[in-house]
Amino acid sequence: MSTSHRGQRFVISGGASGIGLAVARLALQRGARVGLLDRDADALAVAARSLGGGAVALNCDVTDADAVNRAIADAAERLGGIDAIVNSAGIDLLAPLEDMRDADWSRVLAVNLTGPMLLCRAALPHLRRAGGGTIVNVSSGAGLSPLPNRTAYCAAKAGVIMFGKALAIEAASDGIRVNAVCPGAIDTPLFRTSYENAPDPAAALEAIRQRYAMQRIAQPEEVAEAVLYLSSAASSYVTGTALAVDGGRTFH
Q: What are the two backbone dihedrals, phi and then psi, of residue 176, each rounded to the nearest 5 degrees?
């Protein structure tokens, strides 16, 4: 479904690559203004240039509350307000529980769960000031159906789904809708780390494909379409949902 986003003002975390960058590109093509938020300053600059100068670059670590508050305020000033938040920043961790360090667990939850909370909290006054808006949290198919050796990642991604459902209740009276997308295997730099370092990367990738009814790896643009749907008037009666965009893994 192609919808116009003319005049909308997006802030997208994890915007320098992967799903976040795909969302930014598609939103710009459909008339939105975009703020890209990412902790990697060099990648952020490259991403902003790749978008033809149409995006505002916001260097920020989503786990730093003060930095998030400053970045959101900066985005609102430079974009003339905020209508849509997309929480796409995330990290993975592949490790059996007994081998996991406390710091690893804390870091995964900080980026994947606390980060979205901080962005939402900072953005709510701006969304309210705009007369309402949308929040889309990028969770994962792993937040719906677990994977082995990913206790931290699965816990964080499941947590962000329920966080969004609870926030959807709080924010509804202000005209703010909150939803999640749950991607499956998407061809992003983060996904590639899940098989490239395996003893047999080709075999590892094939094993991943077999989990999916469609037996293929998706492109970031396929998830971006779902994010933009949930950020548009076409989904005006949708809030508190978790939309699986996973090629059938969660039922296969």
A: -105, 125
Q: What is the CATH number of the domain that holds 60?
A: 3.40.50.720
Active site residues: 153
HEC string for 148-185: CCCHHHHHHHHHHHHHHHHHHHHHHHHCEEEEEEEECC
Write out pLDDT tens, residues 92-123: 999 999 999 999 999 999 999 999 999 999 99
Do the domain assignments include residue 200?
no
Q: How far is 122 from 120, CA to CA, in rounded Å?
A: 5
Spatial contact of 160 and 211, defined as CB atoms under 8 Å apart: no
Task: In whole angstroms, give the CA distance from residue 130 to residue 121.
Answer: 15
Of 136, 130, 117, whose CA–CA distance to 174 is shortest? 130
CB 111 within 8 A of CB 89: yes
- Tens-digit pLDDT profile for residues 134-174: 999 999 999 999 999 999 999 999 999 999 999 999 999 99
Question: Is the Cβ–Cβ distance between 239 and 170 less than 8 Å?
Answer: no
Provide the token pair at 33: 């203004």
At which residue do the structure tokens 């670059």 appear?
57
What does each C-alpha distance from 46 to 55, 75, 131, 193 come to in angstroms? 11, 19, 33, 21
Nearest by Cα to 235 from 185, 180, 186, 182: 180
Domain that holds residue 82: 9-185+220-244
**pLDDT level of residue 27 (50, 70, 90 thresholds):** very high
Task: Indicate whether 39 belongs to any domain.
Answer: yes
